[in-house]
Specification:
This protein has three domains: 131 residues, no CATH class; 86 residues, Dna Ligase, domain 1; 179 residues, ATP-grasp fold, B domain (D-amino Acid Aminotransferase, Chain A, domain 1), CATH 3.30.470. β11 and β12 form a beta hairpin. The strands form three sheets. An eight-stranded antiparallel sheet has the order 14-13-10-11-12-15-17-16. Helices cover 36% and strands 23% of the residues. With 439 residues, the protein is an alpha+beta fold.
């Protein structure tokens, strides 16, 4: 028996509580969980909120060289009180599902790899009698909230003297108002971050009429005077604080390039898994991760990039010293003046985890050294079998010998393009745009 891989994209509160996400975005996140198939190996059990497309499943096992009789099992719990979009508590802890899973696993040999190792996953581990993750004790004491908290990030990073955006952790509306107005009065902008949200949701950009705006937030508002700011805060503070949580307010920098560095923290310490640039935009649904460039070609030439990786390593080392074990991604921004500022961490499986695992499986440990991987999110790609056929017929399939080509990252439409240079991957991306355009 290998691992139980759980695609619970969100903690219960974010999925259903005060900060509940729009239904279409929850549907999208449920499909994103299907990408975890790339991290599975024979003997594993993958628990997903709904069934991935059979053509995508076949594509994954074929690419990884997994025989049909050795393929990991895919389990989907019964639908609970809500829907089958995400793995809610009543689904993961359903008695019949727990019994089915318990009949498969060997408690003495099974690890659990959850997207979020929260209280629900801890209870599932207890019912199954499995040991869970190496940091189970830490995570069960609200550790998950700690290593995904934006205010905790600012406290630890600032305490270590790392490079972070100017900002404050506001505990009161008056403190937030004073800091925001100090920027608006000078024609600058701020970004307000809800403490526990992710993916840009819960972030709001507040700008003066001449201040910069951009990506990374689900809402942008323009404030003309202090009375307007006071009026905005009357309705916004409860939304930002979610009933009493800290609120992060930072100076917003326009024209920045978002970067990340992903680590795996073990008993031996942090190991750099990979790093890259996030291709971020906006849509009608809010902030959108449009993909990745691995490695971060536009940033690695900067003399400060290695310093960023070193600071990120120090930061995750602190999380390891606190008792956290597992995947953690450190986000940052590259400013036009060349500075790189760390702006949050996320102690969970990230949107890049499956890409780095896949690239290492196909390209070896030197995947970051001589290959460029371009990840494109394409939520309009709905006919998976047709898309796979078109890519194959165009001769664009990933080729192990040439170590380049196209893979389907998920049946949400994500495409993974591997080549020797950024220019090569961008040419393939342009070809795909025409190839997969709706008729």
């Amino acid at each position: 028996m290998g691992a139980i891989i759980i695609g619970n994209q969100l903690v219960e509160e974010t999925a259903t509580g005060h900060d509940e996400l729009p239904v279409e975005y929850r549907r999208y996140l449920g499909m994103v969980s299907h990408r975890l198939l790339w991290t599975a190996r024979p003997g594993d059990v993958v628990v997903l909120p709904n069934r991935p497309h059979p053509a995508f499943v076949e594509h994954v096992w074929h690419t990884l060289g997994v025989e049909d009789n050795a393929a990991p099992q895919i389990l989907v719990p019964p639908v609970g009180a809500r829907d089958d979009l995400l793995l809610y508590e009543d689904r993961l802890l359903d008695e019949d599902f727990c019994a089915e899973l318990g009949g498969i696993v060997d408690p003495s040999k099974t690890d659990v790899r959850a997207f979020f190792h929260d209280d629900v996953v801890a209870e599932l581990c207890a019912r199954l009698g499995v040991r869970g993750t190496p940091s189970r004790s830490f995570l069960e004491q609200s550790g998950t909230a700690l290593v995904n908290s934006k205010s905790t990030f600012r406290a630890i990073a600032s305490g270590l003297g790392l490079s972070v955006p100017a900002g404050i952790v506001a505990l009161t509306a008056s403190a937030a108002e004073a800091y925001i107005w100090s920027h608006l009065a000078e024609g600058r902008s701020v970004i307000v971050k809800q403490d526990g949200h992710g993916g840009g949701y819960g972030n709001e950009i507040i700008r003066s009429p001449g201040g910069p705006s951009g990506f990374g937030a689900s809402r942008t508002i323009t404030i003309e005077d202090r009375q307007g700011l006071d009026a905005e805060l009357l309705g916004a503070w409860d939304r930002w604080s979610g009933g009493g949580r800290p609120v992060v307010v930072e100076e917003y920098s326009a024209d920045s390039v978002p970067l990340y560095a992903e680590f795996s923290i073990t008993e031996s310490g942090p190991e750099l898994v990979g790093h890259g640039e996030m291709r971020v935009g906006t849509s009608d649904d809010g902030p959108t991760n449009r993909g990745l460039v691995i490695p971060a070609i536009r940033a690695t030439g900067s003399g400060r990039y290695q310093a960023f990786l070193d600071e990120a390593h120090r930061l995750v080392g602190a999380l390891g010293a606190m008792g956290y074990r597992g995947s953690v991604s450190v986000d940052s921004i590259l400013l036009p003046d060349g500075r790189i500022l760390l702006n949050e961490f996320n102690g969970r499986t990230s949107g890049s985890t499956h890409v780095h695992i896949l690239c290492r499986a196909l390209l070896g440990e030197d995947a970051l050294l001589d290959r460029v991987t371009l990840v494109r999110s394409n939520r309009a790609l709905t006919n998976i079998p047709d898309a796979l056929r078109r890519i194959r017929d165009a001769g664009l399939w990933f080729n192990r010998t040439g170590r380049s080509g196209v893979l389907l990252g998920g049946d949400d439409g994500q495409l993974i393009i591997i080549g020797s240079t950024l220019e090569e991957t961008e040419r393939i991306e342009s070809h795909l745009e025409a190839l997969l355009a709706p008729a």
